[in-house]
Design brief:
This is Archaeal ATPase. By secondary structure, the chain is an all-alpha fold. The protein contains two helices and no strands.
Amino acid sequence: MSHLSRAERQCLVVYGRRRVGKTTLVTSALDELEDTSVYYLCDERGATHNARRFAA
């Protein structure tokens, strides 16, 4: 959690096998922050597709 509470803006990528609790872990950690956060769930269509969707 200390990594998430730093003053400077950061990007944190979480990846791994399906159905092991990644989404639960991330949403739980973000709920504890007092600062604004963004959560984006990528799909398997590739980095370009996900970057365009995130930027929209």
